[in-house]
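Weekly puzzle thread! Below is a chain. First person to post its structure in token form gets bragging rights.
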Amino acid sequence: MGRAYEVRKASIQKNGAQKAKLYSNMSKEIYQIAKNGDPDPSLNVNLKRIVEKAKKLQVPGDIIDRAIEKAKGGNDEDYKEVIYEGFGPANSTFMVKCLTDNLNRTVALVREAFTKSKNKLGVSNSVSYNYDYLAILGVKNVTEEEVFDCLLNNGIEVDDIEKEDDLIVITCKPGIVTRIKDELEKDLKITDYEIDEVGYYAKEKIKLENSEDLENYELLMNLLENIEDVSDIYSNVLK
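Winning reply:
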């Protein structure tokens, strides 16, 4: 299975046991984007995209509206995205994405999770060179050729276009996602994305064979997932 499978699996997990946390993180992202730009989605393309993503993930409309209204009110809260890198059992590695208004609190909590599980938090760039930072879009009801021709005709180069089950999956650099969506919507009338994610994907995966390593890996994952500031966790472990 490719990167698209990883994204779908992560989305299923988020929509199950971690709905409350998902809602909180999406609210923070919407608030921050609205605060840093125009709070009107029709005038702020980044806000429009994050609202569309929130709706796709079934975030309630009142949560979305409150986040935008909060930004309109000139609230002083300010969230920053930060990535922590770490080492788990048996050469496993982690990229932990956080959205926080208190860096000291967040790094202390993340470090505590690694320490409690007898693993190690790394320094910047100690792990990230083994990951690709990519955007993944998945669309239905079109062919590979149609998507390829649309992007080619508009001078857009992507990393990959492939068919997975009933989806056409586009892998690209995050900076060109908005342009790709604009052209797909204009030329192919695509308005719905089955996959719409930006994340860190390990260049090479490992499999944990030892039961003790697997238990330790799950312990670390659970500790990290229980941290409110943690929004995404990426690992090179093959599940």
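Puzzle host: Confirmed. Bonus trivia for everyone else. DSSP finds eight helices and eight strands in the chain.
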